[in-house]
Amino acid sequence: MLVIGNSGAGKTTTARRIAAAHGLPFHELDQLMFRPGWQPDPAYPDEVARIAARPAWVLDSWGDRRVRALLWARADTVVWLDYPLRTVLPRLFRRSARRTLRRERIFNGNVEAYREWFSRDHPLRSALRDHRRRRAETGRLIAAHPHLTVIRLRRPAETDARLRRPE
Questions:
Q1: The pTM is what?
Q2: Distance (Å, whole) CA 7 – CA 89
């Protein structure tokens, strides 16, 4: 299962909740992708392939270009947190500010630094830049993978209600 959406939508939190509720293994893609010091992990594509070969798993991303085709082919379900920018941008700002000010350690001990706010890859900038493109690309990926069960959620309240529902 893939839990996808824009940065700030709550992919990781939602994926963890789904995995816990269904007794499935959860994997945070960023944790697999980056070593300490934000260094790329060369074993990342192989590790993702190993996970995707298992019968059941939950990942919190649609996958970068190196693993996307594999993940979408192997997934059976996509939970799409298709929230508007007016929802994700304030969340991203609060999360990044908190992480930066408190020097919170995230995956593999990495921390967000002030200088990263000016990077083109900072989640706030990428959300603004890529929101429409990613939504269109998600539609194309869904159309290209008719085997998938797609659960499209457009508001956090809708996601919470869905997660509270016994299945």
A1: 0.94
A2: 9
- Do 110 and 28 touch, CB atoms closer than 8 A? no
The 10s digit of each residue's pLDDT in 119-146 is: 888 899 999 999 999 999 999 999 999 9
Q: What is the mean pLDDT of the chain?
A: 95
DSSP 47-74: HHHHHHTSS--EESS---TTTHHHHHHH
| C-alpha span between 56 and 123 (Å, rounded) | 29
Q: Is the pLDDT of residue 166 over 80?
A: no
Contact criterion met (CB below 8 Å) for 141 and 72:
yes
Range of the domain at 98: 2-164
Dig out the tokens for 76 from the structure: 């059976």
On whether the CB atoms of residues 1 and 61 are closer than 8 A, the answer is: no
CATH number for position 119:
3.40.50.300
User: CA-based diameter of the chain, in Å?
Assistant: 44
Beta-bridge partner residues of 153? 81
